[in-house]
Amino acid sequence: MTEAAHMTPSPVPSIESADVVVVGARCAGSATALPLAAAGRRVIVLDSAPLPSDTLSTHLLWPAGMAELQRLGVLPEVAALGAPQLTHAYAEGAGFGIGSAFQPVDGIDYAMCVRRTGLDGVLVRAVIAAGADVRPRCRVQSVVFDGNRCAGVRYSDSAGAVTEIRAALVVGADGRRSTVARAIGAEEPFLTVPSGRDCYFAYWRDSPDAARHIAAQWRVGADLGTAFPCDDGLVLSLVQPPRAEGKLGPGVAEHRYSSAVQRIPGLLDRLRGCERVGRVRSAVGIASYFRRSAGPGWALPGDAGHFKDPVTAQGIRDALHYGRRLAEAVTDVLDDPADLDAALAQWERARVIECRDIFHWTNRLARGEAMRPLEIELYRSAEVDSELAEITTGIFSRTRTPADLYTPVRALRLGWDALRHQRDQVPAVLADMVREIRDAVAERQMTRTTLRGIPPRLSTPTLITSATSGAQHVR
């Protein structure tokens, strides 16, 4: 008897059908699944983790993020988790402090820092209540193709049973290391900017007399630190020192976190009287990017398609916002492949256009450098200019844009004031002005060419014909 005769054949998977299969049940996945299910579409949501569960996240939501929770109908449940309303923002650098209230978004004028186990739990429960079929502990093995069109996924559950789901749309909402992006050949970004910072954070039991209505940030030298009060009487403190080379060894994250806190007097003072809770968590080797995010029968909302350094805390808002808008774009066209693909392309293009400015702004803050002369002058001016302070805060909440801050008149004034106030640093001020012009030109050029990254040919995936369904799947 030949060796082949002794081989056990691969198990034949069961085959299901749905309108949409969503891979990933957290912010982007839930924001996509909820409106689709509420509209009566058959939605299956897969996640490899138990739900709810914690995940690596700095989880601050500016007012624009809170407004997304309101649009999804889950704001009361999120508020009930107990995180305080952060009604003021404070940023300090070079000895100058900028304080301001938040401009309202859909009537919401506060931020909130909600730990992910609670936030994700609210979202998943809302998705189930809307009628979606949510399946935790299910890991996608491959993506099914019909010709060049994405037609579903194949996954295994916690017991090892293999199931194939055929769907009009596959949504990869499975994060930076997206299995779906890799399977369809979209893993390599068409635009990427490495961060100059590493990220370390930990929770502290807040002191009884702490100002729990303020989201605060400090910059000292090349270090950046934050304190965001969150639920259960805790405060999330994050530090982003300059990027270190090499992998983290035992105890390195703890050392780098503690050392950075000690170098930031304002943060050290904020944490006085607080007690550390749990370990230091880290995200290193970070890069901001745009990936190709839509194609025939597939889309990548959330970090799977676009990611920005956590220094500006934009990830959850964008995951919720563009997940919801993806659902709204495709709900009525899922039964027409041509119309569906046109809607996906329009959604992808809109996200790139709308995120380019905050992408540039984030990358500037993520350089891991000491404050430059013009930045120092901005802090000095905004300390006494309430409009300037409001614009600066508004950029983070997406109610204002960097263009509102750096108008030609304001840029000239900042340069002139920097020369007046920093007379012993005139060469550095002039060099910074030249760099600012050069950076602005480079960003403008990048903005003009970004959309060219959307239609390039993807790397050809390896197609494997399924003997059971006649379809093709991609590992």
Automatic annotation (TrEMBL):
Transmembrane spans: none
Pfam families: FAD_binding_3
GO molecular function: FAD binding
Superkingdom of source: Bacteria
Biased composition (Polar residues): 459-475
Domain FAD-binding residue range list: 18-187
Signal peptide: none
Region (Disordered) residue spans: 453-475
Positions in coiled-coil regions: none
Alphabetical list of PANTHER family matching this protein: CONDITIONED MEDIUM FACTOR RECEPTOR 1, GERANYLGERANYL DIPHOSPHATE REDUCTASE
Listed name of the protein: 2-polyprenyl-6-methoxyphenol hydroxylase-like FAD-dependent oxidoreductase
Protein's organism: Nocardia ignorata
